[in-house]
Design a protein that fits this description.
- By secondary structure, this protein is an alpha+beta fold.
- Helices cover 30% and strands 25% of the residues.
- The strands form 4 sheets. Strands 9-10-11-12-19-16-15-14 form an 8-stranded antiparallel beta sheet, with no helix packed on it. Strands 3-4-5-6-7 form a 5-stranded antiparallel beta sheet, with helices on one face.
- Helix 3 packs parallel to helix 7, helix 4 runs parallel beside helix 7 and helix 11 runs antiparallel to helix 12.
Length: 489
């Protein structure tokens, strides 16, 4: 969940940008829920009179049935609805009604406990994400109003956050950013409600979990560049409490940032502008990341590693390439969390610069990587009768990719052009930058797609495809493609 938590401030982070909360005077703890409510288009104008809410286009009557409203296409809708973040803008105008509604919800939908099934807990707003974000809202409202009616509600929510059976982290589950956010919520609530035992529990969890968050190279195990930034920001505060150095994770994040200060959206998320590049070279064999800055105008990233897991896409072998000061190949990012055609596309091989076996869109192997030099790499994988071998060499104005595939009759080399490029018969042109891209494959085809450059923002883009058939005698498909960027003549 990418709404920034007020307590967590990273060393390398996006700069302050205009947010709805900037125009409102309120406690800092309220900024995050207020911004999410604004992003989701919360309309609370009829809550006091009719107990009717419009949240992200969905009209809900706040009664026993309405409190269990679901959204089949967008799981995140239920999370944010049950967080009650929309009570924050209401409380700024009508604090009594906001507290009344919080109490009504708490009375109608009590905690069913950890033994209840996940679907049963989700229906009544008691999954970990739901009660954690609701605790954040309760903490905000207490800071805003000081109303003692919130104390028993917050106590029940904190008890659920403290429950080891429901904690999204060690020892019962793998480490995850949701556990970190749960602990931050406990620290915030502990300070607001003067409950030092909540803070103590969170600090003990921080100390136990931190060694498992980041791999030895500094990248976390969640498969997203945006979530690397998110985790570094979350853990910066905890690391200072624990007197732990986060130099490696911060370096890894900075190495992913382009010279123009943009963090590409690799995996779930959207691009982040205003980040701090460090010009470093990154090699993370266990988690599957390589990145490097060759000069002031050239940068690349390369993905491989374990098969798709937390926040990852089918992007093994995919790359981004920034050359002559211009994004050439880019990842598509994620439009939003609704399970629709855009979501399916964003996660697919067709949205990444990979070597795709035609007819096997769900192919999902572990991909191994070898670093030949700081700019040349070899990747290989084999799974379910499909084998791939890819050698990638990055240059300041050329990108060379040698592919070999076994197990499919037809293959596609995808080249995901960044927005701004227009296809030609031999590649593409960038009219604004005055650049020409040449792609030297025989069966070149341009497919119009979308790039998701911000939350619920889509821009036209192009997927250049080099198609190659398997050789009947050899039984494999081979394709070497050179991409060259140059100033327009």
């Amino acid at each position: 969940m990418l709404a920034a938590l007020a307590l967590a401030v990273g060393v390398i982070h996006a700069p302050a940008q205009a947010r709805p909360s900037d125009a409102v005077t309120m406690p800092g703890l309220c900024n995050s829920p207020f911004n999410v409510a604004s992003l989701r288009g919360a309309d609370v104008s009829r809550v006091a009179s009719d107990r009717v809410l419009v949240y992200d286009g969905v009209t809900v009557r706040l009664d026993q049935r309405g409190w269990t409203t679901t959204h089949r296409q967008d799981p995140s809708w239920v999370l944010w609805f049950q967080s009650l973040n929309w009570l924050v803008p209401l409380a700024l105008e009508d604090p009594k009604t906001a507290i009344d509604v919080f109490e009504e919800r708490d009375r109608l939908l009590p905690d069913p406990g950890a033994s209840a099934g996940r679907l049963d807990r989700k229906a009544v707003g008691w999954t970990q994400g739901q009660f954690r974000t609701r605790l954040e809202t309760a903490t905000c409202l207490y800071a805003l109003t000081g109303n003692a009616r919130l104390i028993p509600i917050a106590t029940r929510l904190a008890r659920a956050n403290a429950d080891p059976e429901r904690y999204p982290g060690p020892p019962r589950r793998d480490v995850h950013n949701h556990g970190t956010m749960s602990n931050i919520a406990l620290v915030q609530a502990g300070r607001a409600f003067d409950r030092p035992e909540w803070i103590s529990l969170a600090e003990k969890r921080f100390a136990r979990d931190l060694p498992e968050v980041f791999s030895s190279c500094g990248m976390m195990w969640e498969q997203s560049s945006t979530y690397q930034e998110h985790n570094v920001s979350l853990w910066d505060r905890a690391a200072r409490i624990l007197h732990v150095d986060l130099a490696k994770p911060e370096f890894a994040l900075g190495a992913l940032v382009r010279p123009d200060s943009v963090l590409e959206a690799i995996g779930d998320g959207q691009p982040r502008a205003g980040m701090a590049p460090n010009g470093g070279s990154l090699w993370c064999e266990s988690t599957g990341w390589a990145a490097g800055t060759l000069d002031d105008s050239t940068h690349f990233t390369l993905r491989f590693g374990p098969r798709v897991a937390y926040h990852g896409h089918r992007d093994r072998g995919s790359m981004t390439w920034f050359a002559l000061g211009t994004p050439v190949l880019s990842d598509r990012g994620l439009y939003d969390k609704r399970r629709d055609a855009r979501f399916a596309f964003a996660e697919s091989m067709a949205a990444h610069s990979v070597f795709e076996p035609v007819g096997l869109p769900r192919h999902n192997p572990d991909t191994w990587g070898t670093r030949i030099s700081n700019r040349e790499f070899r990747l290989s994988d084999s799974s379910d009768g499909i084998s791939r071998d890819r050698v990638v060499e990055f240059g300041s104005d050329t990108l060379t990719v040698r592919d070999r595939g076994v197990g499919a009759k037809e293959w596609i080399q995808h080249w995901q052009l960044a927005p701004g490029w227009k296809p030609t018969s031999t590649g593409a042109v960038h009219p604004e930058r005055g650049l020409v891209l040449t792609v030297d494959c025989q069966r070149l085809k341009a497919i119009k797609v979308e790039a998701f450059t911000a939350w619920r923002t889509a821009e036209d883009a192009w997927d250049l495809q080099c198609r190659v058939d398997a050789d009947r005698k050899r039984g494999d498909a081979r394709q070497t493609t050179v991409l060259t960027v140059a100033p327009a003549p």
